Amino acid sequence: MFWNSLIYSCIALGLYSLFLAISFYAPARSGALGFALIFTIIGTGMGLFAPVLAVLGLSYLVLTVVFLARNTPPAKALAITVIAFPIIWLAFAGLIFYDLQIDEAYKEKFPLVSLKDRLNYEDGLTETRLAEDFSTVSDDEYSGLEADRFQAYSQTYHNTNWTRKRALSRIHADATTRFINSQGFGISRMRVFGPKWIDEITEPEPIPLPDRYELRKPSTPPTEKLVPLAQSSGTTELLPMPEEESLWATHLFSAGDFVSAGSNGFVEDRQHVSGFLSHGFREIPTLGRKETDSREDWKIVQLQLVSLLKHGEPVVYNSPELPRMEALKETGTRPLTELEQSALAKLCAGEDLVFEIEPTTIRMLGSLRALRSCLKCHRGEEGQLLGAFTYEFLLPLE
Fold first, then answer.
1. DSSP H helical segments within the chain, as ranges?
2. What pLDDT, in 10s, does the model give residues 151-182?
3. Which residues does 7 contact at the CB level (< 8 Å), separation at least 6?
4. Contact call for residues 307 and 387 (beta carbons, < 8 A)
5. Hey, how many other C-beta atoms are within 10 angstroms of the C-beta on 87?
6. 128 and 96 in one domain?
7. What is the pTM assigned to this prediction?
8. Domain span including residue 100
9. pLDDT tens across 233-242, in order?
10. What is the number of structural domains in the chain?
């Protein structure tokens, strides 16, 4: 509490004055240095309670050094100490007031709202469909590299614009308690996640996907006529192919960009959300090739969202742009292709990435699973499959 910090700082002032008086009547240097050491320990300990106490401790330490260097008389030193005390507190009071004014303005700009209407389709889902139709990932379903993939997906989510989420959480806490008595070392609890982090991202803008026909010249043979290098005459060199980890990294980037901690804002529960930005892409995913490969990079021509729960059966939002949830409200759907149906079955069985690589085409389906933070709004269990991305990359040919 505020009053606790004031009481502790008054105690610190009294102790400082006491040690100051003792030091001037002790053997010159030993007494003063002993006092400085003792008070530094006390000041640091008190700094654990609040930033203002840490600053008071540091201020008194600086004054001690000045007093020693200038051989300040005891009466004058005590007077300076007493005068410095209210100055430091007034400065902090002004800072707290300024802090509160900014937070109040951002509370009005980003009020707590409900996402119930946005997610009301989940209310009609039966527990049977949630539990049986779509798998829940458990540790024993993974081995080796796959055991780390869900953790990597979770880290990607939390590491994307996470400072915005922290800033929104900060302004919706009790400001005085937050500033004076937050846990941890005092001076480290000064404003870190301020409002500037809240404005760092906005609603995603439309990003059209490249036209597949513009990437293929008339002289390019159809994909089905191309054969792997091992079966060809050797006149058309199409390898090397991307490695699986490159495909997984691409999907991780896509998932983290589409659903980031920052765009979700502060979420207490489905009824109390602040600063929520609709899920959507802000960058075009790329699939890098090896540095030794001189050919052009793979170009993405399809990245569409597979909806599992909102419709009677799984469908794909047939959008010519990178998925944005707000825009998908007006976007038509299509049924899954045979390849997508087969891949989706594998995702439901516990896999996270299913792909098919041809000489100039890559198609893949990547999972979008529920994280613990997702369950503040969505129904289900951690690790449950909520959706998927279906991708297609083409390799332009000369």
1. 2-25, 28-46, 51-70, 74-109, 127-128, 146-158, 162-171, 175-181, 212-215, 244-258, 261-264, 325-328, 338-348
2. 565 565 555 566 777 778 777 765 444 544 44
3. none
4. yes
5. 10
6. no
7. 0.63
8. 2-109
9. 333 344 456 7
10. 2
